Amino acid sequence: MDIRVVEGNIAEIEASAVVVNIFEGVTEPGGAAAEIDKKLDGAITALVADGEIKGKRGEFTLIHTLGRLPATRVVVAGLGKSDDLTLDVVRGVAGGAGRFVRSKHVASFASVLHGAGAGGIDAEDCAQAMAEGTVMGLYRFDKYKSKSDTDPVEEITLVTLSGDGIGQIESRVEKGEIIAEAVALCRDMSNEPANTMTPTAMAEHALEVARDTGMEIEVLDRDKMAELGMGSLLGVAQGSSEPPKLIVLKYHGDPDDEDNSLGILGKGITFDSGGLDIKGAAGMLTMKGDMAGGASIIGAMGAIARIKPKVNVVGIVPATENMPGGKAQRPGDVVRAMNGKTIEIGNTDAEGRLVLADAVCYARSLGLTRLVDVATLTGAVVVALGDLAIGAFGNNREWTDRIIEAGANVGERIWELPTYPEYQRQYRSDIADIKNTGERGGGAITGAMIIGEFADDAAWAHLDIAGTAKTSRNSGYTPKGATGTPVRTLVELAESVSSS
Ligand code: BES
Ligand code: MN
Ligand code: ZN
Question: What domain range is 297 assigned to?
C-alpha cells in the first residue's frame, strides 16, 4: 500500500472515492465537505436533515456522485463531537474509513486530513495519525485464506490544504507508516498459529528485522542459556521439543553515552498449554497469542531502528513453549534463576514470570537500569481491566509515570495497580527464596511483583497485556485479532527517553 500526499482541493480530485468528514450535531458540513456538498446540490446537508448522517464516530455514509464530481464516490465519515476530537479519534476514523472503502471494492481513495484546520489539530500530527490509522485499520491476516473477500487497497492519497508544508507532512506520513508496519509485524507474529510461530520462527523474524535495519542481534540457544545459569527459563522450556531461544536485539542510538539506555523485554511463550498444570480447552484455545509481548518488542525495535532516536535500546525476548510431557517441569520443583535466586514451582502455568525472571537478570547483566517488560501474564488482569486498558506495575514512580504518559500520547490506555510490599507474603516459599504463585486475590499484582524481584535496583515497570493483546471485534484502527499493543507506546517511550 502506498500513501501519497498532494496539495489541493479534494472536490477537484479524480478518484474512485474521496473521504470527507462531519462533526456530530452540526446541521451543515464545513470545509471540504461543504464544497463537495455544493457540487452535489446539497446532498450531504439533505442527508443530515433526514437524520441518515449524524456525524457519530464510526458512521460512514456512501454517496455516489453520478458525474457531478471528478470522484466517483464520496464517503462522509463521522468524527463524533468536536469537543472530543483527539489524534486517537483521527486514527480511528482513518482506520474505519479504510475498511469501509475496501468493503465497497475500491482499491484507491483520497482523503482529507480529518480534524486538521477547522478541527484544530496540527496538520503534521494529523498526517502521521492518518497514516498510522489507515495502515493499522486496513491490516488483515489472510495468508491462510485461499481467497480474500475483497481486494487490498493499493493507494491512498492524503489531500492537504496548500501552505501546510508538504515536505514535513510527507516525512510524518512516513513515520506513521513505519510505526503502523511495526504494529503489523507484531500482529502477524501473534496471529500466526503456534505450529508455525515457534521460538525458532520468532528468532528468524527478529533476524530479519535486524538485517533490514542493520541492527545488532544475538540469539542464545539452550546451551548458552544453561551456561549463563538461566534455570528458570530452561525449566519452562524443558517440556517442549521446540528449542527455546533468547532473542537479544541491540539498537545503538547514542553510542557515546552507554548510560543513556533502555531495556524492553517481552514474554515469548509461543504456546501456553499450562504445562503439567494443564489448562482446560477453553483457556488453552487462544494461547498461541502468549508471545504477543515478545512480538511487540520485536516490532517496536524495528520501528526504533528506523526512526533512530538518540538512545540505546536493548530488546530481549525469552521465547519457548510451555508444554506437558515426560520431561516437563513438575509442580513442586525448584529452579534457580541466573542471579542465583531459587523459585519453587507452585504452578507450571505461571510460566511467564519464570521466563521473564531470567530475561530481567540478563538485562541487568548488560548493565541496563531502566526496564519495562510486556507480557500476557495473568487472567487476573483481564478480570480487573477487561480489554480496554493495559495493567501497569512498577518499582519507581517516575519511570512508571513516564510509561503511562507515553501510552496516553499514542492512545494506548495504561492503568496502574499497586505493588505494596505486603503482597510479597503471598509468594513466600517454605523451601526456596520465593515461589512462582500467590493467591487468587491480587493475582495480577503478585505475578508482576515476582518479575520485579529480579530487577534489583533498576527502575522497572511491567505491562500486563493479557486483556488487550487481542480483540474480538473490528473497531477503528484495530481489526479483530491481535491488536499489536503496546508497540506504539514502546516507540514513543524510546523517543521520550531520547529527548530528556
Ligand atoms: N498466559 C497466561 C495468562 C493469560 C490468561 C493470558 C488469559 C491471556 C489470557 C499465563 O501464563 C497463565 O496461565 N497465568 C495463570 C497464572 C496462575 C496459574 C497463577 C492465570 O492467570 O491463571
Ligand atoms: Mn500460563
Ligand atoms: Zn502464559
Answer: 180-498
